[in-house]
Fold this sequence. Notes:
The structure holds two protein chains of two kinds.
Chain A: H1 5-10, H2 15-34, H3 43-51, H4 56-66, E1 71-74, H5 81-86, E2 90-93, H6 102-106, H7 115-126, H8 130-134, E3 137-141, H9 145-154, E4 160-163, H10 171-192, H11 198-221, H12 231-241, H13 246-265, E5 277-282, H14 291-298, E6 302-307, H15 312-315, H16 326-337, H17 349-361, E7 366-372, H18 376-391, E8 396-401, H19 408-422
Parallel strand pairs in A: 1-2, 1-3, 3-4, 5-6, 5-7, 7-8
Chain B: E1 2-8, E2 12-18, E3 24-31, H1 36-44, E4 50-56, H2 60-66, E5 70-71, H3 74-85, E6 91-95, E7 100-105, E8 111-116, H4 125-135, H5 142-146, H6 160-172, H7 177-199, E9 205-208, H8 217-225, E10 230-231, H9 239-255
Bound molecules: iron/sulfur cluster (2 copies).
The site of one iron/sulfur cluster has 12 residues of chain A, from helix 7, helix 9 and helix 18.
Amino acid sequence: xxxxxxxxxxxxxxxxxxxxxxxxxxxxxxxxxxxxxxxxxxxxxxxxxxxxxxxxxxxxxxxxxxxxxxxxxxxxxxxxxxxxxxxxxxxxxxxxxxxxxxxxxxxxxxxxxxxxxxxxxxxxxxxxxxxxxxxxxxxxxxxxxxxxxxxxxxxxxxxxxxxxxxxxxxxxxxxxxxxxxxxxxxxxxxxxxxxxxxxxxxxxxxxxxxxxxxxxxxxxxxxxxxxxxxxxxxxxxxxxxxxxxxxxxxxxxxxxxxxxxxxxxxxxxxxxxxxxxxxxxxxxxxxxxxxxxxxxxxxxxxxxxxxxxxxxxxxxxxxxxxxxxxxxxxxxxxxxxxxxxxxxxxxxxxxxxxxxxxxxxxxxxxxxxxxxxxxxxxxxxxxxxxxxxxxxxxxxxxxxxxxxxxxxxxxxxxxxxxxxxxx
Amino acid sequence: xxxxxxxxxxxxxxxxxxxxxxxxxxxxxxxxxxxxxxxxxxxxxxxxxxxxxxxxxxxxxxxxxxxxxxxxxxxxxxxxxxxxxxxxxxxxxxxxxxxxxxxxxxxxxxxxxxxxxxxxxxxxxxxxxxxxxxxxxxxxxxxxxxxxxxxxxxxxxxxxxxxxxxxxxxxxxxxxxxxxxxxxxxxxxxxxxxxxxxxxxxxxxxxxxxxxxxxxxxxxxxxxxxxxxxxxxxxxxxxxxxxxxxxxxxxxxxxx
Lengths: 423, 256
Ligand code: SF4
Ligand code: SF4
């Protein structure tokens, strides 16, 4: 194995601490991923990406920056990566998903804040995330109060740019959001020193559409019974899409889809036919947060879809490709991104429609509402979702948790009891 | 051939032995001790004398890996057990050592919904134990002490650790033990009531688990929560094990 210590220390990382972080991952990965029966061959690529998560891709980022390129990190699915890339920069997703970073986050943030924010900030402060260390600009958004304020703290440690996301979807909000996207474009051009041309932007719009479609096709295969790929694997692929080189990611995902489609044709599955089918809805699950999926799938049910930011919310809806001028393209981008049904919007009835549509399409037996602790938007929205689902006789259960392992036993009991109820 | 149900909880282990007709041949409860799995196997005795051994509770996975033939969750076990003892039961309130839960059943006795307390111990047996310690009372006397008072002091903390120091400082400030004991019980009642209300109370309600075995406590709960027909089994700690054994008879019937 190549020694990447030089690479990491050049990025100003805390090597000792980083060793502790990376020594835990292979064990968890082995237990959660490699022990699954009947995994598709093509998952090998994604295994490799995770095994080399702090090296292979980082080498590419370093190389890109050596040639004068820039790297932008984003925390949320609202940031239009097309613009970043059209200006010649690389976009990477940064949502921290590990408990490892939480204590460092809590050095500067209150304890009662969502673990995603605490881990993200902690990852930067601890100097153990090479993605953070590689970013020339961090892009925040105003999706929740916790994040909004955390950016101010993070801004003391790294350059941060914040996009103001509206909280409603009226025409004037769309106009405002479009204005934000224009400002964003100007900021990115300033960062990279490159002009975004309609030609370059069109190319990136098409590329990101293809990436989203690849994920959509993968998700589509999960509608089959028996389900041909585990929820854990599908989640992993989505998580990797935030980090990976988009072209390579599309190729590898399409290869995976082809293999999985062949499985469907031959009736091969990773769970027995008729295994309970679960839709997970709620807050994002960043790498290596596989906790809930692992509990559900080791209890004998299949997660067949995620209505989350690391799921359908990330890839549904494409950007209209017919725009010729920057004006038209920015409008198309604004429209597509404002279709995301994040709980930061009021009203957010679109999310309910999404959930019902997915319950239908994926033949779901029960819904598990995943809520990162202290994420108030999603926690409050549970009231509406639960009521609507129960009225339709669709079983639903809320799971509120963080990245730590201490509640695993209790979660297992709740998930198993929920499954007993479905059988 | 008989069927064994074994409920391995955080504080206690309960076993129930049923014959084919579902009659209880033996049942008892013991402390989990430092090695619950070993203790459970000991209590089970001669495993070959049972047609099935069904494990439930916190230690069910360990038992399944070791000696049990099947496992079910506490939720299902308590539902089956409570329904067996009280055939019209529609709501089960189970308060154990470390968690409390409410289970809703339909007319046929199937579980249609349930909730559990969040990760903390407030409102559970553990909470009561810690509070009794702070009060300097044996657990069995806490209700009697509370009944000597009709004061209305309330505890402000939900958290077990903070509530304990609150109890200690109330006593230090000269509040009578009975009044503080009452505050402790009321605090558990209110928590439990919240849990019940979140799921909706469908009578009859059956109260199971270790906390229901504390003398006078079910009656105190019933009064405070205005639950006229709160049903309590004669051995509330045995209900989970009983439900597990009943499940063993059911699968046996289904699989022949
Ligand atoms: S939940 Fe909302 S704020 Fe959080 S990542 Fe998703 S879209 Fe962004
Ligand atoms: S999970 Fe909720 S609280 Fe956390 S960052 Fe996303 S929207 Fe904010």
